[in-house]
Amino acid sequence: MTNYGAIPTSSHPSPAVELEYISRAKHRIKSGLATRRPWKSMFDLKSMNLPHGFFDAISRIKTNLGYFRANYAIGVLVVLFLSLLYHPTSLLVLAILVVFWIFLYFLRDEPLMVFGHQIDDRTVMIGLSILTVGLLLFTHATANILGSLLTAAVLVLVHAAVRRSDNLFLDEDAAAATETSGLTSYPSS
User: Fold this and answer.
1) What InterPro entries does the record point to (predicted)?
2) How far apart are CA 186 and CA 41, in angstroms?
3) Does 129 score more than 50 pLDDT?
4) 28 found inside a domain
5) Using one digit for the tens of pLDDT, what is the confidence trace for 58-69?
6) Could you give the count of Cα atoms lying within 13 Å of 145 in the half-sphere of its Cβ?
7) What DSSP element (H or E) covers 112?
8) At residue 119, what are phi and psi to the nearest 5 degrees?
């Protein structure tokens, strides 16, 4: 017996809903990664020179760490990934942690709320960093992890000290967050 003209019902979502979900996820990824700065401006050779002194280097490091925070996080995760290529267990743990990084740090549209308290981006980054290092140390690749983190930290600090910060300006929200945390940085010439 056939029912012509009847509307079929199904417990499975329609392909249009799945495509909408995928499209929305792609949009969130693009907008979430928009917090990172363009790589071209990060590695602009015209903006690279040695600092004039210790305090100039410290000022540059503070400004560049605030401005290129998402780029540096991506760079550290890439260095960590490359160091774990020959440790499949550690690589699997890192892959799972990268999902946490993507959803909790890069893709959030709204501030993270935990037990009714708003958590800022810096706290989320520090928490995810501690979680990443802690869980990776349980995979018995300690020498690789510590070596890659030391390498990444040196690379980030060298770049932050050598990259001139006189043409970088944090947006108002980031500047307000920086001022409240005591890390006020003023661009140096």
Assistant:
1) Prenylated_rab_accept_PRA1
2) 19
3) yes
4) yes
5) 998 898 888 888
6) 19
7) strand 112-114
8) -110, 125
Between the alpha carbon of residue 64 and those of residues 50, 68, 111, the distances in Å are 14, 6, 23
DSSP 163: B
Question: What's the token pair of residue 175?
Answer: 């500047």
Two tokens, residue 95: 């892959």
The interaxial angle of helices 69-83 and 142-162, nearest 10 deg, is 150
| Whole-number Å distance between alpha carbons of 38 and 42 | 6
Q: What is the domain count for the chain?
A: 1
The first and second tokens of residue 75, run together, are 């760079």
Q: Supply 124's token pair.
A: 């989320």
Q: 79: domain range?
A: 15-180
Looking at the chain, how many residues does it have?
189
- For the question of whether the overall pTM of this predicted structure is more than 0.90, the answer is no
Beta strand 117-119 with 112-114 is antiparallel
Is residue 136 one of the residues assigned to a domain? yes
